[in-house]
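Troubleshooting entry. The earlier prediction with flavin-adenine dinucleotide gave an output that would not parse, so I re-checked the input for stray whitespace and re-submitted. Clean input:
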Amino acid sequence: MGGTDDFVTTALLSEELSRVFPSLEGTMMSSLGCARYIEQAGPQELRDRAIPALLSGERIGCAAVTEPNVGSDPTALEARTVLNGDHYVLNGSKCWISNGEISDYAVVLCRVEMGDGRGGIAALIVERERSPYEARDLPKLGLKGWCTSELVFDDCRVPRENCLTDRGPGASLQLFTKNLQRSRCRLALMALGIAQAAFEAAVDYARQRRQFGRPIGEFQLVQDMVADMATEIDAARLLTYRAVKLLNQQTLCDREVAMAKSYSTEMAVRVTSRAVQIHGAYGLSPEFLVERYFRDSRVLTIPEGTTELQKLIIGRSVLGLSAFA
Ligand SMILES: Cc1cc2nc3c(=O)[nH]c(=O)nc-3n(C[C@H](O)[C@H](O)[C@H](O)COP(=O)(O)OP(=O)(O)OC[C@H]3O[C@@H](n4cnc5c(N)ncnc54)[C@H](O)[C@@H]3O)c2cc1C
């Protein structure tokens, strides 16, 4: 999904869009993630109605897991839903949800009580028009055009058929985890696009800016920064497209995706920081794009699993020993 089901093509578009407008890429990525979930788990009538509208951008979607007390560990969710006749009643709040404020559809992960003693984690597809919820923006350092929001569900009634729980225990969490791999890759691609833009700006500036009667690009210490930037961008691109290709082939690739996400997002922080350094004081001014690249890249090491969590996934794969219970 994403115009095409060829993830390599989607990845190329995602990187290129991020080079110029990463917040728009973030908005699209989150909305398409929601559409993908509805496609896999929603009732037919909802699929027919929601998916074309989400793909065309006429409607916006989001996926809500994070809560005020729940971040890296989604098994500790506090938001709850209870089955009441032909509806689930949802209570709780979510935070840092991409597209939350502007969303028409929210896929919400929560704790479920079935009334017959069964329970677990469920994903509810909440249609805002039919099952209203409150949302407000939570401002952040960068990627300001990609809104992140608090969502509040107060006795929100959701039709029973919009819940995946009936397909067996663990189905919701499994589907969420599966879809995470694509979004992690897209964050790696977003980081690549931003780093590439910062690199190009730094190279142009190093050629033009003159000090001591010469372009600063002639100084070896500036060339050292440029060489590191070029090398790290290439390394991140190779790691990321390897993961994209494996996902495209539907090969199990948790380790490769975690390497791509952690390396590429941390690389973008280093590269954009060097781009600021090469610009001197002008790099700190909002009148120069590198200032925004630096703020935007700093955001990316946190969503869809922080760098530390990605490293725990890599460590588990290498050692066969898990940090998670
Ligand atoms: C731009 C953006 C978009 C987002 N979009 C969404 C969205 O659409 N939907 C959604 O549900 N959420 C979203 N989030 C929230 C994001 O998923 C969480 O911020 C992320 O999972 C981390 O949770 P936390 O911020 O609560 O940090 P915490 O989990 O509290 O972590 C704090 C620190 O502790 C470290 N840490 C935690 N556990 C361990 C461990 N076991 N070992 C080592 N270190 C550890 C972390 O790495 C981090 O450095 C978004 C966040 C951002 C910034």
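This one parsed fine. The domain at 26-168 is CATH 2.40.110.10 (Butyryl-CoA Dehydrogenase, subunit A; domain 2).
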